[in-house]
Design brief:
Layout (H helix, E strand, L loop, with lengths): L12 E2 L14 H6 L5 E3 L4 E3 L3 H10 L8 H17 L3 E2 L13
């Protein structure tokens, strides 16, 4: 398995560590329901959990798909994502959520 993983066209993050068990970190509904609101990039909507590196990469890839949130909520979500990225050693190439999906020159 390669050591880096490119995100979708809506954002990119490099993989620098695997999950401890090597298994998928997908949460089932019951597990997701047990998480505190602070565990999500978008806590009011309980969208995009940030429990490990895989979740951080998924949150970046799906960021633009979250509907019904203001730009201020997106600013706060991006801050949560970047904080989680640092915690889980995920490199984010964008410095702002406004850069997601834009081609680099």
């Amino acid at each position: 398995m390669p050591n880096s993983k490119q995100g979708s066209a809506s954002g990119s993050a490099k993989k620098s560590s695997n999950t401890a068990s090597g298994q998928s970190s997908r949460l089932n509904t019951a597990e997701k329901d047990e998480l505190p609101d602070t565990s999500f990039a978008f806590p009011n909507e309980r969208k995009e959990p940030l429990m490990n590196a895989e979740h951080v990469r998924n949150a970046i890839a799906r960021f633009d798909q979250v509907e019904g949130v203001t730009d201020a909520e997106r600013d706060r979500a991006w801050k949560r994502i970047t904080d989680a990225a640092k915690k889980f050693d995920v490199t984010i190439s964008e410095s702002s959520w406004h850069e997601l999906g834009k081609k680099k020159s």
